[in-house]
Structures are given as C-alpha cells and as structure tokens.
Amino acid sequence: MYPHFKTYTLCPRCAAGNETVSHVVLECSIALDVWGMNMFGALWWSRNKLIHENIRQTSRDVTWVHAYTQEIDSLISVEQKPTHRPCVKWNRPGESYVRVNFDAVFLQQNHQSFVGIIIPDHNGLVLGSCSMKNDYILDSFIAEARAAIQALQFAADMGFTNVEIEGDSRTVISKISSRNLDRSSIDAVEKRR
Fold it and tell me: Could you tell me the pTM of the whole model?
C-alpha cells in the first residue's frame, strides 16, 4: 500500500454505506439527487475531488460537470462538414492608388492589441508592411479603430496620398471616413493621434 493513498470503507460523501461501486453510483445520497442522467463519470469525478483534494461537491456541482462533459462529447461527435465559402477575389485599387489593408487582434486580459498592416499596389506587389503592439486598449472596437488610424499613418509616412483602406470593421472605416461629429470612443482615438 502506498503511504499517500487513503483507504475508505465508508462512503466519504454520505458516510451512510460502504464505499462500493454500487453505493457510489446507485445508493449514495449525492447519486440519488442527480441520477436522472448518466452520471457515472461526474460522480466519480466528485468522489475523487473529495478523496484527493478534500473538496466536497454538491449535487449541483456534479450535475454541472455532467452537463459540461455531455456538451464536450457532443462537440467531439459532431461530424465536421466542409463549409462552402464563396470565392472572394481581391479587387485592385485604381491605378494611381494603393490599398492599405489592416487587422487587429485584441487581448482583453492584457488590455493590448496587435496590428498587422500591408500595402499592395494595383498589381498586388507589396510596397510596405508592418506590425505594431498597442497597450492600454479597452475593447475590440478601440483596437480596430487604433489599427485603422495606424494603417493610415503608416501609408502617409511611406509617402502615399491616394489610398483605399480595407479592414474587417465596417463601422470603424465608416466613422473614420465621416465628417460628422462623433461621440463614440473612436472620436477620442482619432483626437489622440
């Protein structure tokens, strides 16, 4: 017998019967509270939490674990069907224009965003690209707004004056292009530059 293993004769959850598989699964009061579904795995998990971590689970905890594992199992068993997406072709900008493509990813836990910018000419030749990190970003909308402004600044720094901007946030591009007064958070981002 290993010294770190505990041996129990009574059920550690209810102390009303000997700890047998039959008792843990069918007779324990915790099992009776939640037995409407196939709960063996969740019950065994609950038992192990008590035995090995001294954490007592309620019937609600066990039910939640069971529901969670059922959801995971259903996701795993779903047959992956290929999705048919329409072919999206790159539209060339006008001959005297460059297209400024940008995208941002927002990390909420760190309040950071990372930006990627690429500038191809009308033939698709890459004229410039860069990536940037931004700190103190509050949400994904501000991350996209900041990325759009940085993309335009990058194009201006490279000397491009005839640009078409392209990103995945139509709202941000519309607000930047608008001449109207804007009281959204993007207006504050624009004023900072």
Answer: 0.50
pLDDT per residue over 123-158, tens digit each? 888 899 999 999 999 888 889 989 999 999 999 999
The rounded Cα 73 to chain-centroid distance in angstroms is 20
The DSSP symbol for 162 reads S
Which candidate, 49, 47, 5, 45, places its Cα nearest to that of 23?
Answer: 47
State the amino acid at position 9 in one-letter form. T
Instruction: Give strand pairing partners of 128.
Output: 119
DSSP readout, 97-113? -EEEEEEEEEEGGGTEE
Query: What DSSP state is assigned to residue 26?
Result: I
pLDDT digits (tens, 9 = 90+) for 168-182: 887 777 777 776 665
> Domains of the chain: which residue ranges?
1-84, 98-192
**15 pLDDT exceeds 70?**
yes
Question: Is residue 131 helix, strand or coil?
Answer: strand
Burial 56-75 (b: 16+ CB within 10 A, else e): ebebebbbebbeeeeeeeee
Domain 98-192 sits in CATH at 3.30.420.10
CA-wise closest residue to 100 among 121, 72, 77: 121
- Cβ atoms of 28 and 14 within 8 Å: the answer is yes
